[in-house]
Amino acid sequence: MELKPIGRVVNGCADRKSMTALGVPSRIELLPEFEPALLYLEKHTHIWVFGWLDGGERDVLQVIPRGLKPRPGEEPDPRNLHGVFAVRSPARPNPIGLTAARIVDISRSHVDVDRLDFIDGTPVVDLKPYFPSRDCIFSARSRQVGSNASIEAARESALGQALAFCGEESEDLHLAVEILAHFRAEVLEFRDPDEWSIVVPAARHQLCDALMGVTRAMPGRGEIRFHGLDAVVFEHAGARYEYQFLPEGGWRFWPH
Predict the structure, then answer these.
(1) pLDDT at residue 237 in the model
(2) What's the angle, vertex CA 240, arms to CA 212 and CA 223, rounded to 5?
(3) 3-state secondary structure the chain
(4) Same-domain pairing of 21 and 111
(5) Same domain, yes or no, for 131 and 235?
(6) How many folded domains does the chain comprise?
(7) Which of 14, 92, 212, 224 could form an SS bridge with 84, CB 3.0 to 4.6 Å?
(8) Do 116 and 191 belong to one domain?
(9) Per-residue buried b or exposed e for 99-135, using 16+ beta carbons within 10 Å of the residue's own CB
């Protein structure tokens, strides 16, 4: 097997400790001999970026994911160990990283993307177009591996997922992100339920879209239902949690 880099990542992020969980804006600088391979890449809005995580340990088969790391002074819980094929850790037999990214700009010698979770200088071994007709599996499910460290992290994660689903920002998208981040922090303690039960205003389509994009809940499965009130209601563990929208903007949280 022969693997040759086609370029490298440039983003100024020097180590994994300074890399955010969702990545940072990045440039993929191509080696000159591979520049012709960018022909017609502009037909696509998103790409898969394959990186060689050359600092990753290749003899480690089980790790504790970032969201399950012990607090300072605590002993690691062996029940939190996951096989490397079940997580996105850089430690794996062949340290290949894979990230989907939105194209921001294309030039003769580089591709700028919205974010990559590869550190500065990571060798890039391939680029492939993201095909919605093949690669988008909205019905896919994953049991939660770790949890958000804070409400700010929950908000950032929800915003990225909502934008990826909806394609553009709106006031109702940001409203959905805010109430989801609050609900995850205050009620769920950053542990998503096995099944969602959400009631949304029938007339606020963008709000519904954003909630679907983040929770993967679907009306066809009865996980999202509609009513005529200007409020979002989450039903969880036998209780109802209502977010009433105020005329002057914002919302009021009403658990009952």
Answers:
(1) 94
(2) 30
(3) CCCCCCEEEECCCCCHHHCCCCCEEEEEEECHHHHHHHCCHHHCCEEEEEEECCCCCCCCCEECCHHHCCCCCCCCCHHHCEEHHHCCCCCCCCCEEEEEEEEEEECCCEEEEEEECCCCCCEEEEEEECCHHHHCCCCCCCCCCCCCCCHHHHHHHHHHHHHHHHCCCCHHHHHHHHHHHHHHHHCCCCCCCCCCCEEEECCCHHHHHHHHHHHCCCHHHCCEEEECCCEEEEEECCEEEEEEECCCCCEEEEEC
(4) yes
(5) no
(6) 2
(7) 92
(8) no
(9) bebebeebeeeebbbbbbbbbbebbbbbbeebeeeee
- pLDDT per residue as tens digits for the range 74-94: 888 888 899 999 998 899 999
In this prediction the pTM is 0.84
On the question of pLDDT at 145 being above 90, the answer is no
Query: Which residues on adjacent β-strands are paired with residue 201?
Result: 227
CATH number of the domain within which 73 lies: 2.40.30.70
Residue 170 belongs to what domain range?
151-255
